[in-house]
Amino acid sequence: MPSIISVRGLRKSYASGHIALHGIDLDIREGEIFALLGPNGAGKTTLISIICGLVTPTAGQVMVGGRDIIRDYKAARRQVGLVPQELHNDAFDKVLATVRFSRGLFGKPRDDALIEKILHDLTLWDKRDAKIMELSGGMKRRVMIAKALAHEPRVLFLDEPTAGVDVELRKDMWRLVRGLRETGVTIILTTHYIEEAEEMADRVGVINGGRLVLVDEKEALMHKLGTKTLTLHLARPMEQLPAALADWNLALKSGGRDLEYLFDARAQEGSGVPALMRQLEALGIGYTDLSTRQSSLEDIFVSLVHSGDIAPGEAMAGKGGGQ
Fold first, then answer.
1. Continuous segment of H or E residues that includes residue 77
2. What is the structure's pLDDT at 295?
């Protein structure tokens, strides 16, 4: 699949000496949903701001649809729509007028049919004559998306698209983003909601301290780094693990009522589960039920934190802080 965005050696430093980005290399494929994850101050917003032409890089090159974001700024910028994390709308403007005006800013001819379709798709048509100040926070965010789509961009950046919205609206937004991808729009989103990336993304990038820690297919990432947990609900609680079980990565949970076994299901030597079950039988340790769980993207992120790739104090908790 061809790349619609190509980033090479991207660096951003400030007069204070702070380096926001350290030589970023990244390709975004046309038509994909790419999730960029990272703790506060990791460089997510700096990176997308440079790609969108809002911040000038110190070094490196960014190409959008084959256009250099510096040398051919207007042509590159026309291909990009940006929905920022903060809502910046004129409170007294009406919905239809502000979306129509946004299209004109990019030199596009008036197209009432297109604007109407965008507003319908975003459930905004009934609000077209409402002042933005009269809208809920979720509706205001939809207006921001409508403005970003008004000039028909090939790439849409969503910076924390569901921050501050309720769960129901968040799921509506997920459906909307998938629908946009089906029309051929490439979606890049930054998020601190791990479940958002896990639900929507084709690929995931993790950024920390201005460096890309990892970029991979979501499923491949979970396959390579994910683990499984086998939980046995014991017939009788245990106070401590017998020495005969020392060869397995076991832990007692729920006051000794549950026995957890963490294992790599893809290990060449096998999962160790059959041998564990035989050993439990030999020791007379019974259980009433068992279950297995595949690690989530959040588990993987936490494992990166503990490996030292991301500072533990800055780790996302799945539902914590913003950019």
1. helix 73-77
2. 66
Locate 234 and state its tokens.
């014991």
Domains of the chain, each with CATH number or no CATH: 3-79+153-223 (3.40.50.300), 227-294 (3.30.70)
What gap in Å lies between CA 218 and CA 208, rounded to an integer? 18
Contacts of 42 (CB under 8 A, 6+ apart): 207, 208, 209, 210, 314
Cα gap 293→120, rounded to integer Å: 40
Instruction: Indicate if the pLDDT at residue 155 is higher than 50.
Output: yes
Q: Give which of 127, 246, 122 is closest to 173, Cα–Cα.
A: 122
The residue written with tokens 């999730």 in the block is 35
Between CA 150 and CA 100 the distance in angstroms is 7
The pLDDT tens digits of the residues spanning 157-199 come to 988 877 666 677 777 778 888 888 888 899 999 876 777 777 8
Query: 250: which residues sit within 8 A by CB, 6+ positions away?
Result: 241, 259, 260, 261
Measured distance CA(289)–CA(191) in Å, rounded: 37
Helix (H, G, I), strand (E, B) or coil at 300: helix
Partnered with residue 6 across adjacent β-strands are 27, 63
